[in-house]
């Protein structure tokens, strides 16, 4: 089987920086370390650090007074950060710089009197963090149809933003629709990161040229799921698995050329192993 591997597959800048921060703290050997929530969305990476003694907390009150706690790459709500600072020995922020920029941009628009319309997954940790900067009137929607049913209020000022890993093409359609409804002067926060755009564009291009696509990465990783979505949208049979062991060769029956890509939190070792498995079919 011929495998065409996406050049952009694997860790993005935000994931790499977060893991570098964690590795730096581990190397100091200055006592226990924890993260508030999974530092990235990849079970294999989380298992690796768990074996090194890194605890994964679900809430600030679980932190010990002697622990250094690292804020996950997706960021956390402001209230949780304040609570964490009251319980942990030290709080280290590993929020992705692109997510942090989105948080600050949303906070600025709130101060200017805008009501936020956020395109994102309501229950995603990044979105929960973003919404904490947006005020009580903010509205988050995961589907275009949800937005179309939103009760806009005359005279109210709105702005629109997106979760950093959302589909850029869908967001562009949303912006066009909102500007027709609310006016061309609608403030738009360009919060979708370049890494997301590049990965999605390459997945689309690959899907149009191969017999099938394989997307590797955590099932709870939003950017990985969207890579599979944009590939399927091209009419290309697409398989999303977390590890090479999960791939059933029957899922690729009849395919001679297969495209391979991976989410922004998928380690290179897993992508390499998947490529070897595909080439051996």
Automatic annotation (TrEMBL):
<comment type="pathway">
    <text>Isoprenoid biosynthesis; dimethylallyl diphosphate biosynthesis; dimethylallyl diphosphate from (2E)-4-hydroxy-3-methylbutenyl diphosphate: step 1/1.</text>
</comment>
<dbReference type="GO" id="GO:0046872">
    <property type="term" value="F:metal ion binding"/>
</dbReference>
<feature type="binding site">
    <location>
        <position position="124"/>
    </location>
    <ligand>
        <name>dimethylallyl diphosphate</name>
    </ligand>
</feature>
<feature type="binding site">
    <location>
        <position position="164"/>
    </location>
    <ligand>
        <name>(2E)-4-hydroxy-3-methylbut-2-enyl diphosphate</name>
    </ligand>
</feature>
<keyword id="KW-0479">Metal-binding</keyword>
<comment type="similarity">
    <text>Belongs to the IspH family.</text>
</comment>
<feature type="binding site">
    <location>
        <position position="265"/>
    </location>
    <ligand>
        <name>(2E)-4-hydroxy-3-methylbut-2-enyl diphosphate</name>
    </ligand>
</feature>
<feature type="binding site">
    <location>
        <position position="223"/>
    </location>
    <ligand>
        <name>dimethylallyl diphosphate</name>
    </ligand>
</feature>
<protein>
    <recommendedName>
        <fullName>4-hydroxy-3-methylbut-2-enyl diphosphate reductase</fullName>
        <ecNumber>1.17.7.4</ecNumber>
    </recommendedName>
</protein>
<dbReference type="GO" id="GO:0051745">
    <property type="term" value="F:4-hydroxy-3-methylbut-2-enyl diphosphate reductase activity"/>
</dbReference>
<feature type="binding site">
    <location>
        <position position="41"/>
    </location>
    <ligand>
        <name>dimethylallyl diphosphate</name>
    </ligand>
</feature>
<dbReference type="GO" id="GO:0051539">
    <property type="term" value="F:4 iron, 4 sulfur cluster binding"/>
</dbReference>
<feature type="binding site">
    <location>
        <position position="12"/>
    </location>
    <ligand>
        <name>[4Fe-4S] cluster</name>
    </ligand>
</feature>
<feature type="binding site">
    <location>
        <position position="41"/>
    </location>
    <ligand>
        <name>(2E)-4-hydroxy-3-methylbut-2-enyl diphosphate</name>
    </ligand>
</feature>
<feature type="binding site">
    <location>
        <position position="221"/>
    </location>
    <ligand>
        <name>(2E)-4-hydroxy-3-methylbut-2-enyl diphosphate</name>
    </ligand>
</feature>
<keyword id="KW-0414">Isoprene biosynthesis</keyword>
<feature type="binding site">
    <location>
        <position position="74"/>
    </location>
    <ligand>
        <name>isopentenyl diphosphate</name>
    </ligand>
</feature>
<feature type="binding site">
    <location>
        <position position="223"/>
    </location>
    <ligand>
        <name>(2E)-4-hydroxy-3-methylbut-2-enyl diphosphate</name>
    </ligand>
</feature>
<feature type="binding site">
    <location>
        <position position="74"/>
    </location>
    <ligand>
        <name>(2E)-4-hydroxy-3-methylbut-2-enyl diphosphate</name>
    </ligand>
</feature>
<feature type="binding site">
    <location>
        <position position="74"/>
    </location>
    <ligand>
        <name>dimethylallyl diphosphate</name>
    </ligand>
</feature>
<dbReference type="GO" id="GO:0050992">
    <property type="term" value="P:dimethylallyl diphosphate biosynthetic process"/>
</dbReference>
<feature type="binding site">
    <location>
        <position position="265"/>
    </location>
    <ligand>
        <name>dimethylallyl diphosphate</name>
    </ligand>
</feature>
<dbReference type="GO" id="GO:0019288">
    <property type="term" value="P:isopentenyl diphosphate biosynthetic process, methylerythritol 4-phosphate pathway"/>
</dbReference>
<feature type="binding site">
    <location>
        <position position="221"/>
    </location>
    <ligand>
        <name>isopentenyl diphosphate</name>
    </ligand>
</feature>
<comment type="function">
    <text>Catalyzes the conversion of 1-hydroxy-2-methyl-2-(E)-butenyl 4-diphosphate (HMBPP) into a mixture of isopentenyl diphosphate (IPP) and dimethylallyl diphosphate (DMAPP). Acts in the terminal step of the DOXP/MEP pathway for isoprenoid precursor biosynthesis.</text>
</comment>
<keyword id="KW-0408">Iron</keyword>
<dbReference type="Pfam" id="PF02401">
    <property type="entry name" value="LYTB"/>
</dbReference>
<feature type="binding site">
    <location>
        <position position="41"/>
    </location>
    <ligand>
        <name>isopentenyl diphosphate</name>
    </ligand>
</feature>
<keyword id="KW-0560">Oxidoreductase</keyword>
<feature type="binding site">
    <location>
        <position position="96"/>
    </location>
    <ligand>
        <name>[4Fe-4S] cluster</name>
    </ligand>
</feature>
<feature type="binding site">
    <location>
        <position position="193"/>
    </location>
    <ligand>
        <name>[4Fe-4S] cluster</name>
    </ligand>
</feature>
<feature type="active site" description="Proton donor">
    <location>
        <position position="126"/>
    </location>
</feature>
<feature type="binding site">
    <location>
        <position position="124"/>
    </location>
    <ligand>
        <name>isopentenyl diphosphate</name>
    </ligand>
</feature>
<dbReference type="InterPro" id="IPR003451">
    <property type="entry name" value="LytB/IspH"/>
</dbReference>
<keyword id="KW-0411">Iron-sulfur</keyword>
<feature type="binding site">
    <location>
        <position position="265"/>
    </location>
    <ligand>
        <name>isopentenyl diphosphate</name>
    </ligand>
</feature>
<feature type="binding site">
    <location>
        <position position="223"/>
    </location>
    <ligand>
        <name>isopentenyl diphosphate</name>
    </ligand>
</feature>
<comment type="pathway">
    <text>Isoprenoid biosynthesis; isopentenyl diphosphate biosynthesis via DXP pathway; isopentenyl diphosphate from 1-deoxy-D-xylulose 5-phosphate: step 6/6.</text>
</comment>
<feature type="binding site">
    <location>
        <position position="124"/>
    </location>
    <ligand>
        <name>(2E)-4-hydroxy-3-methylbut-2-enyl diphosphate</name>
    </ligand>
</feature>
<feature type="binding site">
    <location>
        <position position="221"/>
    </location>
    <ligand>
        <name>dimethylallyl diphosphate</name>
    </ligand>
</feature>
<keyword id="KW-0004">4Fe-4S</keyword>
<dbReference type="GO" id="GO:0016114">
    <property type="term" value="P:terpenoid biosynthetic process"/>
</dbReference>
